[in-house]
Amino acid sequence: MNGTRRRRGIAIAAAGAGFALVLSACSGGGGGGGGTSTGTAAAADCAPYSQFGSLKGKTISIYAGITTPEDKPYIDSFKPFEQCTGAKVNYQADKNFEQQVLVRAKAGNPPDLAIVPQPGLLAQLVATGKAVEPPQAVSDNVDKFFGPDWKKYGTVDGKFYAAPSGASVKSLVWYSPKTFQDNGWKVPTTLDELKALSDQIASSGKMKPWCAGIESGTATGWPVTDWVEDFMLRLSGPDNYDKWVGHQIPFNDPSVVTAFDGVGGYLKNPQYVNGGYGDVKSIASTAFQIGGFPILQQQCAMHRQASFYAANWKDADKNVTIGPDATSDKNVFAFYLPGQTAQDHPVLGAGEFVLAFRDAPEVKALQTFWSTDTWANLKAKASSADTEGGWISANKGLDASNLVNPIDKLSVDILKDPNTVFRFDGSDQMPAAVGSGAFWKQATAWITGQSTQDTVNKIEAAWPKS
């Protein structure tokens, strides 16, 4: 659940644009927004890199929780930088990254750069005193290529530290386009239409409208928290969502109760769930990875899960394809989980941020490259070639033509929609005792029968007192 969870310019104002252009030239591409090849660099003038001093023989270490096979596109995306600067990028992946990066920072042995998947972890790393603020050009690139919400999530105590990298969209509902077409069901554009569609499917007797799974080992319950966060954002608005995440309102505030009960209208409704698996309580014992699979057997019609769920469908059937095509039962796609009105466009998501721990020219240079649209397009093309997609960014310069996976293209369209109001996964921002503790645990208890009021009261009681 890395999600399952930005580019920087150079310290000299004029260097930001020049840097991006030179990188494009070095990698054999065109302008910064169009993407480039990760192949051998063409002969080019890399003189603008001289402002950083000589980078030949310099090594920059990157530490991340993004492991094989998703690590290869990252490694490939840095090749033009290495070829043009002479620097070496050393990428290290670790499944225990989130625990170990804190250990390393506190011990005084952090990496040069870390790919941090949560704003809460970012704040903890900054609190160690080992993090280094990026050069001004990185901040300028984030202002240029990302919305202000994204910059806020890379900011700690009023200081900007980390540019965004990858992203995921969580406000999605998976479905079978053919099943919808065959039954005359329309993709909803408002929450009222979603409820009416669920009633229509339930009353048809053909299948349950919804299927779900929240079992995830020690992280069991997190898919429910995503549901609740989506409904907090839709029913209470982004400002109240922010207050809830920051504990400016208590976890048992009436607005939170309303959000839980809104979700309960779907997940705790025996007429709606759990298609293909059993009753409501079966949701708690169904692995989240397989939660949507009954869509392929027409045992359920819809499954709310993030864009990264696309990677799971091949485990259900190797012949599954993803896209809007309605001619095959083996095709799945997703639609945007609507807001209260067709004009409302709240989006829940997650992402990654690039945090530095060493103040050195080569580290600043790589940060700058990483915060450009040039890198975003290199990464998208590498992901398309190496892993058939599964990676997106909120970078406004990302060219959708570099994305091969239809769900990636849909997700980028959602992120780029001018009406989109983006909010980061709430549990990822809350203290660990709540976000990855009481919220997950009590949400699971809620699914298996605990009342809403008892649930929110217990989560509120777990919030740290200081």
What does the average pLDDT come to? Answer: 89
Report the sheet-strand fraction. 5-15%
Low-confidence residue ranges: 1-44
- Largest pleated sheet: 6 strands, mixed
Through-space gap between termini: 28 Å
Which descriptor suits the 3D outline? globular
> What is the count of distinct domains?
2
Work out the number of β strands: 13
List the total number of helices: 19
CATH architecture of the largest domain: 3-Layer(aba) Sandwich
Report the structural category.
alpha/beta
- CATH class division of the largest domain: Alpha Beta
CATH topology description of the largest domain:
D-Maltodextrin-Binding Protein, domain 2
Level of helix content?
A: 40-55%
Radius of gyration, CA atoms, in whole angstroms? 22 Å
- CATH H-level name of the largest domain... which superfamily? Periplasmic binding protein-like II
Family: Belongs to the bacterial solute-binding protein 1 family.
Protein name: ABC transporter substrate-binding protein
Signal peptide: 1-25
Keywords: Signal, Transport
From the structure above, extract its key features.
466 residues, alpha/beta, D-Maltodextrin-Binding Protein, domain 2, 2 domains, 6-stranded mixed beta sheet, 5-stranded mixed beta sheet, 19 helices, disordered N terminus, ABC transporter substrate-binding protein, transport
